Fold this protein.
Amino acid sequence: MKARQCSLCVETEKQPADVKFFFLKDANPRKANRTLILARRHIQGLHLMVEMTADERLDLWRAAIGKAKELWGANWAVAYNGDKVRTQCHLHIHIGRLLPGVEAGEFIEVGSPAQIPVPVLDGLWIHGTAEGKMHVHTGEQITETVLLR
């Protein structure tokens, strides 16, 4: 756990065992406006979201989106980087403010976190709409760049 890519695993071990998820301010000084949500449970191998149970994923998305709304109001967004570009092994989602004008390409519109597709290899980013729905952007590896640094 001394390797740089294991630093979030170290932070996870500091949390009480009965906690499902916890929030952590991003330690990168260039990302001062970011918060992370992490699963307390270590997942075998590369800590992939696909390895979580459906209930765990749903709880994780609900908590991440709830915190994003609390911090950023209508401008909230969350981002999960794809498996090929993650620099930390422990599963985490970036929470931040959606940058203006970044919505492009195709997306899936969903009405609840239960409808968010399971990311497999690729990342995804999600933000709210004026109508109270969510746009889920898929098919990208680096997704956190849509968030205010």
